[in-house]
Design brief:
The structure is a homodimer. Chain A is about 25% helix and about 40% strand. Chain A contains three helices and six strands. The model of chain A has no long low-confidence stretch (mean pLDDT about 95). At the A-B interface, strand 3, strand 4, strand 5 and strand 6 of A face strand 3, strand 4, strand 5 and strand 6 of B.
């Protein structure tokens, strides 16, 4: 693995590590100030502060005891200072809004990163749940 | 709107125009040969050929008479030769695998583009359905 692939991969793993510590200060620091994030139900957060507040809320509720596992990371570089990292993940230990335990679910997270002053920051993220056995959204 | 924003926005609108003509040759030409695409249920296509074949199949079946409307496009440039375009969309006229009409659905499409020889091509796309009224995936 090249140094730059390793650096980007480390940010993806840090995403999961901060999630699993439920440390939303450290989580937010992975993002550039003007980063955007679309979650699995299409909520679109604009800026690090919105991303942080949304995750503080879910990590006090639905995701309080959840554990996120990154199962693989694929990294590409359209130019030297921009990276596209796509990861499959599994989430366990999350609960419904009423507090009921939910089964594990899996998804794919796209993260776009930019390198500035030698540091890779997340500038964009979009998350999609995996729904097995269908070509498009069942309704 | 700057020229470069207009150029990128035009590619996003071409995505919908090709979809609505169900012209998967023209659709595929919007993508770079090594583009990747994750659809709303987490199917991960690698390369223009896989993207084309997958859409040829769905446009012969589920999406045969569907119409995709891009309702807004937001464009950012991490560097001059890379663009991140995020769009809200509405899909109508699609059917279930059994051919039954389905109600309109909405989502958010993230497209990453790179400019090469003056032409913007899609190098990555990830799509997420909007599910109203929830913070995370209902189960």
């Amino acid at each position: 693995m090249s140094d730059t692939v390793a650096e980007v991969t480390q940010v993806v793993h840090a995403f999961a590590e901060c999630w699993n510590r439920h440390d939303m200060n450290a989580f937010a620091e992975l993002f550039a100030p003007d980063a955007e994030f679309v979650n699995v139900v299409g909520l679109w957060w604009k800026g690090r502060d919105e991303i942080k507040k949304a995750h503080e809320f879910t990590h006090a509720t639905l995701f309080k005891n959840s554990r996120l596992t990154i199962t693989d990371v694929s990294v590409r570089f359209p130019v030297a200072s921009v990276a596209i990292a796509r990861s499959r993940w599994v989430l366990e230990g999350h609960v419904s809004p009423e507090g009921a335990p939910l089964p594990p679910r899996a998804g794919i997270l796209l993260i776009v990163l930019a390198r500035s002053s030698g540091v890779w920051s997340i500038i964009d993220a979009q998350n999609t749940d995996i729904i097995e056995g269908v070509l498009s959204r069942p309704q």
